[in-house]
Amino acid sequence: MPDELPDDDLKAIWHNQPTETSTMTLKLIRAKARDLHAKTRRQLLATAVGPLVTAFFYTFAIRQLPQIANLLHPLFLFALVWSLGGLYFLNRAMWSTVMPGDAGLSTGLAFCRGELERRRLLLRRILLWSFGPLLMTLATFILALAIAGGGGRRILSNGRPFLVLVVVWILAYFVLRARDQRELQREIDELDDIEK
Fold first, then answer.
1. What is the pLDDT of residue 105?
2. Which of 57, 83, 120, 171 could be joined to 133 by an S-S link, Cβ 3.0–4.6 Å?
3. 8 Å CB contact between 107 and 100
4. In terms of pTM, does the model score above 0.85?
5. Per residue in 100-127, pLDDT tens?
6. What does DSSP assign to residue 19?
7. pLDDT in tens, 30-89
8. CA 122 – CA 142 distance, rounded (Å)
9. Nearest 5 degrees, angle CA 64-CA 65-CA 69?
């Protein structure tokens, strides 16, 4: 009967089958390069949020709490300068050119590798130059609220939901950062497999 399996072990048959190698065409490499380039540009544009948030909290705190403005000016000003400096250092040498349309397979792979390395470098820099100033801004704002509230247990109980949100935001940031690092490593490993 043709429907019957041979007497050989099924596992041995399965293991002896030829494996297919995934072929990456030039068209797919170009699409991947465009996608990586777009992700890098989005991340670089998102770094502009840090100085805007710092400026917002600075303005809000100074207008709402003029009695402690002398204490807040240096702290917020430091966070703002740090944030603007971070914007410069995050974007320095990070804007790449678009992959040429007539690039070959090896040039396309090199471009993809360059974009992945650029994203990895950006991910490393963000902690110091974007996340740090935001934390300083939030700490200064919380300090301003605590001083203006007059201290005591009332300010702690009223500010608890805000503090919980800040802690959740910080934890979520580090979880997302770890996920991004794993994704970048996976993409680099995938690119290494393609090159082989």
1. 54
2. 83
3. yes
4. no
5. 555 555 577 888 888 888 889 898 899 9
6. P
7. 788 888 888 888 988 989 999 999 999 999 999 999 999 999 999 999 999 999 999 998
8. 29
9. 130
**Using CA atoms, how far apart are residues 125 and 88, in angstroms rounded to an integer?**
11
Q: Which two tokens stand for residue 92?
A: 């320095």
Residues 65, 71, 74: CA angle, nearest 5 degrees: 115
d(CA 90, CA 52): 15
Per the CB < 8 A criterion, the answer to whether 75 and 39 are in contact is no
Region of poorest pLDDT, from 86-95, 134-143, 169-178: 86-95
In sequence order, the 6+-apart residues with CB closer than 8 A to the CB of 166 are 138, 142
Burial (CB < 10 A; 0-12, 13-18, 19+), residue 129, is buried
Q: Using an 8 Å Cβ cutoff, are 54 and 80 in contact?
A: yes
Q: How far apart are CA 128 and CA 83, in angstroms?
A: 10
Helix residue ranges, H only, 65-104: 69-91
CA atoms within 13 A on the CB side of 47: 29
| Distances from the Cα of 29 to the Cα of 41, 96, 119, 139, angstroms | 18, 17, 17, 45
Amino acid letter for position 188:
I
DSSP 8-state class, residue 4: S
Determine the distance from the C-alpha atom of residue 168 to the mean position of all C-alpha atoms in its chain, rounded to a whole number.
Answer: 17
